[in-house]
Amino acid sequence: MKNSFCLLILMVTFSYSNAPVIQSPKHQDLYKIIKNYKKYKQMCDLTFSGMHWNHNVVIYLNKGSEDYIHNFSVIEFLSDEELAEDFEEEHGEEALQKALIFRKYPVGTIMIKEHYLTNDSSKSPISYAIMIKREKGFNQNSNDWEYAWVAKDNSILLRGVDDSKVVKNTCHNCHYSVKERDFIFGTALKDNFIKK
Q1: Furthest-apart CA pair in the chain: how many Å?
Q2: Spatial separation of the C-alpha atoms in residues 140 and 127, rounded to whole Å
Q3: Is pLDDT of 194 > 80?
Q4: Is the pLDDT at 176 greater than 80, yes or no?
Q5: In the prediction, which pLDDT does 53 show?
Q6: What letters, b where the CB count within 10 A reaches 16 and e where it falls short, cover 16-42?
Q7: 168: which residues sit within 8 A by CB, 6+ positions away?
Q8: In whole angstroms, what is the distance from residue 193 CA to residue 64 CA?
Q9: Which secondary-structure segment (H or E) carries 145?
Q10: pTM value?
Q11: Secondary structure, 3-state, 151-162
Q12: Phi, psi of 59 (to 5 degrees)
């Protein structure tokens, strides 16, 4: 908790700093993601996220959007018995059992969350939380996800996996709680993706 609080102070400090940031060659992939992520599929409109330091977030995915939508549906079925019963009545028990299985995201999936302090997404985000699904064997404890957090000035606030205490306490422990969902909460979705 102490590490997370220190990171939050660091992030706010960087967010309001006018000092130029020198971009490290070892983080070029993150800079490229931030430069191009608006081409990804936007999965939700601005939504409050208590899990992301009580910020408002907008989520984008470069691939795996069908998996995200499916997993959102699983969460809906598990939390709404009537919805699940209606689905089973229309499609059968076998289809419901298949619909209740969380999917894994493909290698190369990039999820980026824009962070906002207010509920106005017309402003620039204050930071970006990024998850990258790496090749099989990258990190077994995170099902091969790498975490990163980047300030709006491209300062790298954190990057890594659960072997870093800061990453473990700031990102991994929370995402690990939904490992059956492949570490993605997936609780926010744009209305136009929801099948009626």
Answers
A1: 60
A2: 27
A3: no
A4: yes
A5: 87
A6: eeeeeeeeeeebeebeebbeebeebbe
A7: 162
A8: 14
A9: strand 145-151
A10: 0.86
A11: ECCCCEEEEECC
A12: -105, 135
Angle 116-120-126 (CA atoms, 0-180°, nearest 5)? Answer: 25
CB 77 within 8 A of CB 84: yes
Per-residue model confidence (pLDDT) at position 123: 87
Q: How confident is the model at residue 195 (pLDDT cuts 50, 70, 90)?
A: low
Q: How far is CA 168 from CA 3, 105, 107, 142, 147, in A?
A: 10, 21, 21, 10, 9
- Which amino acid is residue 60, in one-letter code? Y
User: Residue 123 corresponds to which amino acid?
Assistant: K
- 84-92: long-range contacts at Cβ-Cβ below 8 A with a sequence spacing of 24 or more? none
Nearest of 187, 166, 163, 180 to residue 113 by alpha carbon: 187
Residue 170 DSSP class: I
Question: In this structure, what token pair is assigned to residue 155?
Answer: 């300062």
